[in-house]
Amino acid sequence: MEQKLRGHAHKYGKNVDTDVIIPGKYCNLIDPVELGKHALEGLDPQFTAKVKAGDIIVADTNFGCGSSREVAPIAIKGSGASAVVAKSFARIFYRNALNIGLPIFECPEAVDAIENGDEIEVEPATGVVRNVTKGTIFEAAALPPFMQALIEAGGLVPYVERRLGGM
User: Fold this and answer.
1) Domain map of the chain by residue range?
2) Superfamily in which the 5-163 domain is placed by CATH
């Protein structure tokens, strides 16, 4: 995964749970774009009007806590956001995000230094997080090669299909 993810930061606080990432009334939707139209609706009703393709969600601790809604990271990805940088993630959200091909990075120092609207860039292969607006650089843990390949493929299912020869 050599590409860089670049966009503006949409910053949120602690304990952003899956109920506000995608409210329950939308959990019956299966189209990622339709889910994306309601991403973060329970926390920031204006998010989908503000987010542009490639933007990055930045959050404090325990992002994605609450119920194990697999549609939560799908909604984020469907909104056009390219990644999430947080101080920490709920473990099930972390795995669900990677399984659907949404890059996520834990980097507390970057979160503290990024303000809403800052232009930021993330290099998934190295874990480098740049605040382009402020000219600062931080290091999150790089995604292991397997996880990079999983994200490049678009998630676990496409990755396995590739590995099995396109079945």
Assistant:
1) 5-163
2) Aconitase, domain 4 (3.20.19.10)
